[in-house]
Amino acid sequence: MKEVLEAIYSSPLPTALGVGGIIFLFLALVGKVGGKFIIDIPPDRQKWFAIAGTALLLGGIFLYILPLLTSTTTAANMPTPTGTPTPTDTPTATPTDTPTVTPTDTPTVTPTDTPTPTDTPIPSPAPIPECKYDNLLNCSTPVAMYVPEESRLDISFTSDGLRVDFDNYMNGSGVAFQFSPALDVREFVRLELSGTSTQTFTFLVEYKVLEDNELRVVTSSSPQSFHSTSETQAVKIPMQYDGWVNEIVINFPIVGESAVLTIESIRLK
Protein backbone atom coordinates (compact mmCIF):
# COMPACT_ATOMS: atom_id res chain seq x y z
CA MET A 1 0.00 0.00 0.00
CA LYS A 2 2.84 2.35 0.86
CA GLU A 3 4.44 1.79 -2.55
CA VAL A 4 1.11 2.59 -4.31
CA LEU A 5 0.72 5.85 -2.37
CA GLU A 6 4.29 6.86 -3.13
CA ALA A 7 3.73 6.11 -6.82
CA ILE A 8 0.58 8.28 -6.84
CA TYR A 9 2.43 11.04 -4.95
CA SER A 10 5.25 11.11 -7.48
CA SER A 11 2.89 10.90 -10.48
CA PRO A 12 1.25 13.95 -12.11
CA LEU A 13 -2.23 12.71 -11.11
CA PRO A 14 -2.65 14.93 -7.99
CA THR A 15 -1.50 17.98 -9.94
CA ALA A 16 -3.78 17.17 -12.89
CA LEU A 17 -6.80 16.81 -10.60
CA GLY A 18 -5.99 20.06 -8.82
CA VAL A 19 -5.53 22.00 -12.06
CA GLY A 20 -8.70 20.49 -13.53
CA GLY A 21 -10.67 21.43 -10.42
CA ILE A 22 -9.44 25.01 -10.61
CA ILE A 23 -10.43 25.23 -14.29
CA PHE A 24 -13.92 23.85 -13.57
CA LEU A 25 -14.41 26.30 -10.70
CA PHE A 26 -13.26 29.15 -12.88
CA LEU A 27 -15.74 28.21 -15.63
CA ALA A 28 -18.52 27.85 -13.06
CA LEU A 29 -17.87 31.38 -11.76
CA VAL A 30 -17.33 33.07 -15.14
CA GLY A 31 -19.79 31.10 -17.27
CA LYS A 32 -18.29 32.22 -20.55
CA VAL A 33 -14.75 32.49 -21.89
CA GLY A 34 -14.07 34.27 -25.17
CA GLY A 35 -11.09 34.31 -27.48
CA LYS A 36 -10.05 32.06 -30.31
CA PHE A 37 -12.30 29.40 -28.84
CA ILE A 38 -15.50 30.47 -27.07
CA ILE A 39 -16.68 28.42 -24.12
CA ASP A 40 -20.25 29.24 -23.09
CA ILE A 41 -21.71 27.34 -20.13
CA PRO A 42 -25.46 27.60 -19.50
CA PRO A 43 -26.38 28.87 -16.03
CA ASP A 44 -28.15 25.62 -15.11
CA ARG A 45 -24.86 23.74 -15.66
CA GLN A 46 -22.63 26.16 -13.82
CA LYS A 47 -23.49 24.60 -10.48
CA TRP A 48 -22.49 21.14 -11.80
CA PHE A 49 -19.20 22.62 -12.97
CA ALA A 50 -18.75 24.07 -9.48
CA ILE A 51 -19.46 20.69 -7.85
CA ALA A 52 -17.18 18.85 -10.27
CA GLY A 53 -14.40 21.45 -9.84
CA THR A 54 -14.64 21.24 -6.04
CA ALA A 55 -14.51 17.43 -6.16
CA LEU A 56 -11.51 17.41 -8.49
CA LEU A 57 -9.63 20.00 -6.43
CA LEU A 58 -10.30 18.20 -3.14
CA GLY A 59 -9.37 14.89 -4.76
CA GLY A 60 -6.03 16.27 -5.97
CA ILE A 61 -5.28 17.78 -2.55
CA PHE A 62 -6.23 14.51 -0.85
CA LEU A 63 -3.99 12.41 -3.10
CA TYR A 64 -1.13 14.85 -2.55
CA ILE A 65 -1.46 14.91 1.26
CA LEU A 66 -2.29 11.24 1.86
CA PRO A 67 1.28 9.87 1.34
CA LEU A 68 2.64 12.60 3.61
CA LEU A 69 0.17 11.69 6.32
CA THR A 70 1.04 8.02 5.91
CA SER A 71 4.81 8.62 6.22
CA THR A 72 4.22 10.85 9.27
CA THR A 73 2.13 8.15 10.91
CA THR A 74 4.78 5.53 10.14
CA ALA A 75 7.53 7.65 11.64
CA ALA A 76 5.41 8.30 14.73
CA ASN A 77 4.81 4.58 15.24
CA MET A 78 8.50 3.67 15.47
CA PRO A 79 9.31 3.47 19.19
CA THR A 80 11.45 0.38 18.45
CA PRO A 81 14.79 2.32 18.22
CA THR A 82 14.38 3.41 21.82
CA GLY A 83 15.22 -0.13 22.78
CA THR A 84 18.95 0.61 23.04
CA PRO A 85 19.90 -2.44 25.08
CA THR A 86 21.50 -3.75 21.86
CA PRO A 87 24.49 -1.29 21.97
CA THR A 88 24.95 -2.02 25.67
CA ASP A 89 25.26 -5.73 24.92
CA THR A 90 27.88 -5.21 22.18
CA PRO A 91 30.58 -3.67 24.45
CA THR A 92 29.97 -6.45 26.98
CA ALA A 93 30.66 -9.22 24.44
CA THR A 94 33.47 -7.54 22.51
CA PRO A 95 35.94 -6.93 25.37
CA THR A 96 35.58 -10.53 26.55
CA ASP A 97 36.47 -11.91 23.10
CA THR A 98 39.25 -9.46 22.25
CA PRO A 99 41.64 -10.31 25.13
CA THR A 100 41.00 -14.04 24.64
CA VAL A 101 41.98 -14.32 20.94
CA THR A 102 44.19 -11.36 19.97
CA PRO A 103 46.97 -11.61 22.56
CA THR A 104 47.52 -15.31 21.86
CA ASP A 105 48.07 -14.78 18.11
CA THR A 106 49.78 -11.37 18.12
CA PRO A 107 52.89 -12.18 20.20
CA THR A 108 53.61 -15.20 17.99
CA VAL A 109 54.00 -13.22 14.72
CA THR A 110 54.44 -9.51 15.40
CA PRO A 111 57.54 -9.49 17.62
CA THR A 112 59.50 -11.57 15.11
CA ASP A 113 58.76 -9.11 12.23
CA THR A 114 59.04 -5.87 14.22
CA PRO A 115 62.89 -5.77 14.44
CA THR A 116 63.15 -5.47 10.64
CA PRO A 117 61.88 -1.83 10.48
CA THR A 118 63.76 -0.88 13.63
CA ASP A 119 67.09 -1.95 12.09
CA THR A 120 66.79 0.48 9.15
CA PRO A 121 67.00 3.84 11.03
CA ILE A 122 69.91 2.75 13.27
CA PRO A 123 72.73 3.23 10.71
CA SER A 124 72.27 6.92 9.92
CA PRO A 125 73.72 7.05 6.39
CA ALA A 126 72.54 3.58 5.33
CA PRO A 127 69.97 3.64 2.49
CA ILE A 128 66.92 1.42 2.35
CA PRO A 129 68.03 -1.85 0.68
CA GLU A 130 65.00 -2.05 -1.63
CA CYS A 131 65.73 1.42 -2.91
CA LYS A 132 69.12 0.49 -4.35
CA TYR A 133 68.02 -2.61 -6.18
CA ASP A 134 64.45 -1.77 -7.19
CA ASN A 135 62.60 1.34 -8.35
CA LEU A 136 63.90 4.69 -7.05
CA LEU A 137 60.34 6.06 -7.31
CA ASN A 138 59.45 3.88 -4.31
CA CYS A 139 61.93 5.48 -1.93
CA SER A 140 62.34 9.09 -3.06
CA THR A 141 60.37 12.31 -2.90
CA PRO A 142 59.87 13.91 -6.33
CA VAL A 143 60.00 17.72 -6.43
CA ALA A 144 59.04 19.87 -9.45
CA MET A 145 61.68 22.38 -10.60
CA TYR A 146 60.78 25.24 -12.95
CA VAL A 147 60.98 29.03 -13.34
CA PRO A 148 57.56 30.69 -12.83
CA GLU A 149 56.30 32.58 -15.89
CA GLU A 150 59.20 31.16 -17.92
CA SER A 151 58.56 27.42 -17.74
CA ARG A 152 55.98 25.01 -16.37
CA LEU A 153 56.24 21.52 -14.85
CA ASP A 154 53.53 19.47 -13.12
CA ILE A 155 54.06 16.05 -11.53
CA SER A 156 51.51 13.52 -10.30
CA PHE A 157 51.45 9.82 -9.57
CA THR A 158 49.22 7.61 -11.73
CA SER A 159 48.69 3.88 -12.03
CA ASP A 160 51.46 3.79 -14.68
CA GLY A 161 54.05 5.70 -12.66
CA LEU A 162 55.10 9.35 -12.23
CA ARG A 163 53.50 11.68 -14.80
CA VAL A 164 55.72 14.69 -15.67
CA ASP A 165 54.10 17.39 -17.81
CA PHE A 166 56.60 20.14 -18.70
CA ASP A 167 56.78 23.09 -21.11
CA ASN A 168 60.04 25.05 -21.47
CA TYR A 169 58.61 28.02 -23.34
CA MET A 170 61.26 30.45 -22.01
CA ASN A 171 63.47 28.48 -19.60
CA GLY A 172 64.40 24.97 -18.51
CA SER A 173 62.78 22.72 -15.91
CA GLY A 174 63.38 19.42 -14.14
CA VAL A 175 62.37 16.87 -11.52
CA ALA A 176 64.46 16.32 -8.38
CA PHE A 177 64.30 12.97 -6.58
CA GLN A 178 65.31 13.49 -2.95
CA PHE A 179 66.57 10.65 -0.76
CA SER A 180 66.52 10.50 3.02
CA PRO A 181 68.77 8.92 4.13
CA ALA A 182 71.32 9.40 1.39
CA LEU A 183 71.57 6.86 -1.41
CA ASP A 184 74.78 4.85 -1.94
CA VAL A 185 75.48 4.54 -5.68
CA ARG A 186 79.06 3.29 -5.49
CA GLU A 187 78.42 -0.27 -6.71
CA PHE A 188 76.41 0.68 -9.80
CA VAL A 189 77.58 1.51 -13.30
CA ARG A 190 74.48 3.02 -14.90
CA LEU A 191 71.08 4.56 -14.26
CA GLU A 192 68.13 3.27 -16.30
CA LEU A 193 65.12 5.51 -17.00
CA SER A 194 62.03 3.66 -18.30
CA GLY A 195 58.72 5.08 -19.47
CA THR A 196 56.78 6.69 -22.31
CA SER A 197 56.61 10.20 -23.77
CA THR A 198 54.34 12.20 -26.05
CA GLN A 199 57.29 14.13 -27.56
CA THR A 200 61.00 13.60 -28.11
CA PHE A 201 63.09 15.68 -25.70
CA THR A 202 66.63 16.12 -24.38
CA PHE A 203 67.55 15.57 -20.76
CA LEU A 204 70.55 15.10 -18.51
CA VAL A 205 71.01 13.61 -15.04
CA GLU A 206 72.57 15.59 -12.16
CA TYR A 207 73.83 14.13 -8.87
CA LYS A 208 73.69 16.35 -5.79
CA VAL A 209 75.24 16.02 -2.33
CA LEU A 210 74.19 17.87 0.83
CA GLU A 211 77.09 19.86 2.23
CA ASP A 212 76.69 22.44 5.01
CA ASN A 213 72.90 22.22 4.62
CA GLU A 214 73.17 23.10 0.93
CA LEU A 215 72.75 20.85 -2.09
CA ARG A 216 75.73 20.95 -4.43
CA VAL A 217 75.95 19.42 -7.92
CA VAL A 218 78.89 17.02 -7.87
CA THR A 219 78.54 15.78 -11.46
CA SER A 220 76.09 15.47 -14.34
CA SER A 221 75.66 13.20 -17.32
CA SER A 222 76.01 14.11 -20.95
CA PRO A 223 72.81 15.15 -22.78
CA GLN A 224 70.52 12.19 -23.45
CA SER A 225 67.57 11.82 -25.83
CA PHE A 226 64.19 10.33 -24.91
CA HIS A 227 62.13 9.55 -27.99
CA SER A 228 58.41 9.97 -28.45
CA THR A 229 56.72 6.60 -27.96
CA SER A 230 53.56 5.03 -26.57
CA GLU A 231 55.45 1.85 -25.68
CA THR A 232 57.82 1.60 -22.75
CA GLN A 233 61.43 2.40 -23.60
CA ALA A 234 64.50 2.31 -21.36
CA VAL A 235 67.31 4.86 -21.64
CA LYS A 236 70.57 3.75 -20.04
CA ILE A 237 72.77 6.54 -18.67
CA PRO A 238 76.32 5.72 -17.48
CA MET A 239 76.86 6.55 -13.79
CA GLN A 240 78.94 9.70 -13.33
CA TYR A 241 79.43 9.54 -9.57
CA ASP A 242 80.86 7.03 -7.09
CA GLY A 243 79.59 7.83 -3.60
CA TRP A 244 76.52 8.89 -1.65
CA VAL A 245 73.91 11.24 -3.13
CA ASN A 246 71.05 13.13 -1.51
CA GLU A 247 69.35 14.08 -4.75
CA ILE A 248 69.19 12.91 -8.37
CA VAL A 249 67.81 15.45 -10.82
CA ILE A 250 66.41 14.78 -14.29
CA ASN A 251 66.92 18.09 -16.06
CA PHE A 252 65.07 19.28 -19.18
CA PRO A 253 67.41 22.11 -20.28
CA ILE A 254 66.30 22.83 -23.87
CA VAL A 255 64.12 25.93 -24.25
CA GLY A 256 61.12 25.35 -26.50
CA GLU A 257 60.74 21.66 -25.72
CA SER A 258 57.65 20.24 -24.05
CA ALA A 259 56.30 16.75 -23.41
CA VAL A 260 54.22 14.57 -21.13
CA LEU A 261 56.65 12.00 -19.74
CA THR A 262 55.42 9.00 -17.75
CA ILE A 263 58.28 7.60 -15.68
CA GLU A 264 57.54 3.95 -14.93
CA SER A 265 60.83 3.27 -13.14
CA ILE A 266 64.28 4.61 -12.36
CA ARG A 267 66.70 1.80 -11.56
CA LEU A 268 70.35 1.50 -10.68
CA LYS A 269 72.19 -1.23 -12.57
Q: Total helix count?
A: 6
Low-confidence stretches: 106-128
Our measurement of the CA-to-CA distance between the termini, rounded to an integer number of angstroms, reads 73 Å
Q: State the total count of DSSP E strands.
A: 13
Write down the Rg: 38 Å
β-sheet strand percentage:
25-35%
Instruction: Please outline the major beta sheet.
Output: 6 strands, antiparallel
User: Roughly how much helix do the residues carry, as a percent range?
Assistant: 25-40%
Overall shape: it is rod-shaped
Q: Write down the secondary-structure element order.
A: HHEEHHHHEEEEEEEEEEE
SS-derived structural category: alpha+beta
The overall pLDDT, averaged over residues, is 79
Structural overview:
The chain has 269 residues and is α+β, with helices and mostly antiparallel strands. The radius of gyration is 38 Å and the shape is rod-shaped. Helix 1 crosses helix 3 (43-76) and helix 2 (13-30) packs antiparallel against helix 3 (43-76). 37% of the residues lie in helices and 35% in strands. It contains six helices and 13 strands. The protein starts with a helix and ends with a strand. It has helices spanning 2-10, 13-30, 43-76, 85-113, 115-119, 129-133; strands spanning 32-33, 39-40, 141-146, 152-157, 162-167, 173-184, 190-197, 201-211, 214-220, 224-226, 229-238, 244-252, 258-268. Strand 8 (201-211) and strand 9 (214-220) form a beta hairpin.
Question: What layout of secondary structure does this protein have?
Answer:
Blueprint: H1 2-10, H2 13-30, E1 32-33, E2 39-40, H3 43-76, H4 85-113, H5 115-119, H6 129-133, E3 141-146, E4 152-157, E5 162-167, E6 173-184, E7 190-197, E8 201-211, E9 214-220, E10 224-226, E11 229-238, E12 244-252, E13 258-268
Antiparallel strand pairs: 1-2, 3-6, 4-5, 5-13, 6-12, 7-11, 7-13, 8-9, 8-10, 8-12
